[in-house]
Write a structure and sequence with these properties.
The structure is a single chain. By secondary structure, this protein is α/β, with parallel strands linked by helices. The chain folds into 2 domains: 83 residues, no CATH class; 213 residues, Alpha/Beta hydrolase fold, catalytic domain (Rossmann fold). Strands 1-2-4-3-5-6-7-8 form an 8-stranded mixed β-sheet, sandwiched between helices. Helix 2 runs antiparallel to helix 3, helix 3 crosses helix 8 and helix 5 packs across helix 6. The radius of gyration is 22 Å and the shape is elongated.
């Protein structure tokens, strides 16, 4: 019972209020005992509250949402998952032998912002499956957001769609992920055995992808002005809450477990489409992906294309990117509806 209560408190945003209430009583008692103990109590109280505050901010979800996907040919399919309702969208294939594209948006975005990227696949006759991540688009909110839990909801949603629309996955799938969607794609690659049935994955397109959490953690520490001396303690608390949120997954103990290749790495032909001047992630993440494939001996699987005119955000429609994707599809031998 105690472990269940502890896990519940770890996965909700009520940890800080509970600690505040408990320490308020303890501090009041200490203050009544004398001045010196009161000072110690106030320092202890403030330190713990600060630690829990910055830890919880590390799991914050977006407050503003992009609109849900609405348009001709798109069918909305709400799916009940462990975290609540997740909204998925299907665009049926128009070619009898075409594969299906699974397309996942980035942080603070939504499936509605991926329609431009999906357009040329629709023109090829492909089927499309798009998923709104938790706390994005039309999906339910979560108290604390993690990419691992988001990957779990994507897997749950795809499994339910596979059961209700088996033809969508019978001709193989290709995955397209932008930014955070690329990070989830890497994790999906390592967790592919959880897909039911395990699909024939034909290839991956990762656009300006996030490939590790190490830099994001350091960025969070810089934004929140967390002193270096307590960053290891903050990381320890974050890992504990991460594992509590994802209690049905193997525990993480080191920060590098959230980076490729441990986090995940593609095993099929992969197109890396990278913004030349990535104002959000810089060049660290796509350089990591290149290094991972080099070290894994799978360099031949990765095709990297850096596009000068592409930005990390605000490019829902982008002609130069479409040309690069089209050429990769042709080079990989993916058939179009006109073939």
């Amino acid at each position: 019972m105690i472990s269940l209560i502890w896990r519940y408190s770890q996965t909700r945003n009520n940890v800080l209020p509970l600690i505040f209430l408990l320490l308020a009583f303890v501090s009041a008692y200490i203050m009544a005992q004398g001045y010196d103990l009161a000072v110690i109590g106030i320092i202890l109280f403030s330190s713990i509250c600060y630690l829990e505050t910055v830890t919880q901010l590390s799991f914050r979800a977006p407050k503003r949402r992009k609109p849900i996907l609405e348009g001709i040919g798109w069918k909305s399919i709400p799916q009940q998952t462990q975290i609540g309702m997740v909204n998925s969208y299907i665009h049926e294939a128009t070619s009898s032998d075409a594969p299906t594209l699974v397309i996942i948006h980035g942080w603070t975005s939504a499936s509605s912002r991926m329609v431009g990227r999906a357009r040329q696949f629709i023109e090829r006759g492909w089927g499309i499956v798009a998923v709104d991540l938790p706390s994005h688009g039309g999906s339910d909110s979560v108290s604390k957001w993690t990419a691992e839990q988001a990957t779990t909801t994507v897997i749950e949603s795809l499994n339910r769609i596979s059961a209700s629309h088996p033809l969508l996955f019978s001709r193989g799938i290709c995955y397209y992920g932008h930014s955070m969607g690329g990070f989830i794609g890497l994790r999906l690659s390592s967790r592919r055995k959880e897909l039911e049935p395990i699909p024939n994955i034909l290839g991956w397109i990762l656009e300006s992808p996030m490939t590790g959490y190490t830099e994001i953690f350091q960025e969070t520490c810089n934004i929140l002005k967390i002193p270096k001396i307590i960053q290891p303690v903050v990381l320890w608390r974050m890992m504990g809450q991460f594992n509590s949120i994802n209690h049905d997954r193997p525990n993480f103990s080191e920060l590098n477990e959230t980076d490729a290749p441990i986090w995940g790495l593609t095993q099929e032909p992969t197109l890396l489409v990278q913004a030349a001047n990535d104002e959000r992630l810089g060049d660290t993440h796509y350089l990591r992906l290149q290094k991972c494939h080099d070290e894994a001996g799978t360099k031949e699987l990765l095709t990297s294309r850096v596009i000068e005119s592409l930005r990390h955000s605000g490019c829902a429609v982008h002609a130069d990117r479409d040309v690069v994707v089209h050429q990769w599809l042709e080079d990989c031998g993916f058939q179009s509806s006109s073939d």
